[in-house]
TrEMBL record:
<feature type="domain" description="DAHP synthetase I/KDSA">
    <location>
        <begin position="101"/>
        <end position="348"/>
    </location>
</feature>
<dbReference type="GO" id="GO:0016740">
    <property type="term" value="F:transferase activity"/>
</dbReference>
<keyword id="KW-0808">Transferase</keyword>
<dbReference type="Pfam" id="PF00793">
    <property type="entry name" value="DAHP_synth_1"/>
</dbReference>
<dbReference type="InterPro" id="IPR013785">
    <property type="entry name" value="Aldolase_TIM"/>
</dbReference>
<dbReference type="InterPro" id="IPR006218">
    <property type="entry name" value="DAHP1/KDSA"/>
</dbReference>
<dbReference type="InterPro" id="IPR052899">
    <property type="entry name" value="Class-I_DAHP_synthase"/>
</dbReference>
<protein>
    <submittedName>
        <fullName>3-deoxy-7-phosphoheptulonate synthase</fullName>
    </submittedName>
</protein>
Length: 375
């Protein structure tokens, strides 16, 4: 059972105290309190865990601080969408809104290499009015002898450049919990010129200790990649690990599934699952067309497969695009062959906007159908 308190309920109010006193004394029930800071209000949600089958929903709703109660299913308790659950999704981080209704684009380098390339990338983003990017500093590589990323050494200049170009959020994969502190210490030292979204890579989706460590902090939101060889249910449970530890600011990223049947693409593109993840959970959903498609192959219509895959995800309602660009792909240290080029950025952004607008128009078509059927 989930008790949602009235917005902005003060934690030192009588209503809050009385409500918590009642809930804390329910036999066999333990509580987990979640605070959600939205743009205009603070929401407190109290999860009642354990022996809740016999609890009476009306009785909980009668408590002074409770706005309403929802009976939640066992799966994805915090991030899931339950019956009669029309709670808003998403969060605001460093001035950027993330929800199941909007769209943010994270174009950037798969791996940070030299300052000149980072500079060119961020300048192009600033020129295009974009405020988010991706920059890999810690790279999990299949081959132990491959470049593993510059690690903490590159953080100061990457974050400084981000600040200089008005970048508000940098998606950055971490592969060990010590990287959270490296990032935090660096940002703090620089006076927080930008923000970071911690990325969990597909190889770490079920690294439960890493998930718990990331979930224990709420300074940074999380981008969780779907595991490339496990079921969707298993990946969604991995996201729930983050929330169960206290951090529900999670975006779920589809990035293709590993199978020989996916060829000619690097992975089987799974963007038809965008609406499914939005139905099962309240997480904003990201698509990563670069790691799904993995090449710069072009269809006879003149459009790259990466762009076609992006369009498929966005037209189906994706809320974020994570995509590799590089000013000189032939010099990239990781994933050069799948990178888009700087001069392709404006057209690509225009294509994405077109698809996002089309998704909104598609929604309107089916809303009209629903309204007409109801009459
Ligand atoms: C990446 O985004 O750089 C990456 C390594 O992706 P994935 O974990 O999906 O392979
Ligand atoms: Mn990559």
């Amino acid at each position: 059972m989930l008790a949602i308190l009235h917005p902005n309920t003060a934690l030192d109010s009588d209503a809050y105290r009385q409500t918590m006193h009642y809930l804390e004394n329910l036999p066999g029930v333990s509580l987990r309190v979640h605070e959600i800071q939205g743009a205009s209000q603070r929401l407190t949600e109290v999860y009642l865990l354990g022996d809740t089958k016999t609890l009476d929903k009306e009785e909980i709703e009668a408590l002074p601080a409770v706005e309403r109660a929802i009976r939640i299913s066992d799966d994805y308790r915090i991030l899931g969408r339950h019956k009669d659950d029309n709670r808003q999704s998403g969060f605001t981080y460093n001035g950027v809104e993330f929800s199941q209704n909007n769209l943010n684009i994270f174009a950037g380098l798969c791996a940070v290499d030299v300052p000149e390339h980072v500079e060119q990338m961020m300048q192009a983003l600033e020129d295009a009015g974009e405020v988010c990017t991706r920059m890999g500093a810690y790279k999990p590589r299949t081959n132990p002898y491959s470049f593993q990323g510059h690690g903490k050494g590159c953080l100061p200049w990457v974050f400084e450049k981000a600040g200089k170009h008005g970048i508000k959020v940098v998606a950055m994969e971490i592969t060990h919990e010590s990287h959270i502190e490296e990032i935090d210490t660096c940002l703090e030292k620089l006076g927080r010129p930008t923000g970071v979204m911690l990325q969990v890579g597909t190889r770490n989706t079920q690294n439960f200790e890493l998930l718990k460590a990331i979930g224990r902090q709420t300074t940074y939101p999380v981008l969780l990649k779907r595991g490339f060889g496990i079921t969707l249910n298993e990946s969604l449970n991995a996201a729930e690990y983050l929330a169960s530890e206290g951090n529900a600011n999670v975006i779920f990223c589809l990035r293709g599934m590993k199978t020989e049947a996916g060829q000619p693409h690097r992975n089987m593109v799974d963007f038809a699952h965008v609406p499914a993840v939005k139905r099962l959970t309240r997480m904003p959903v990201c698509v990563d067309p670069s790691h799904s498609v993995g090449s710069r192959d072009r269809a006879p219509d003149g459009i790259l497969d990466v762009m076609h895959a992006t369009a498929q995800g966005v037209i189906a309602g994706a809320n974020m695009v994570l995509v590799d660009f590089h000013p000189k792909p032939e010099k990239a240290l990781v994933d050069g062959p799948q990178a888009l080029l700087m001069n392709e950025l404006p057209a690509y952004l225009e294509d994405i906007r077109l698809c996002h607008d089309t998704w909104k128009k598609r929604q309107a078509i089916y809303q009209r159908l629903k309204d007409n059927t109801a009459e």
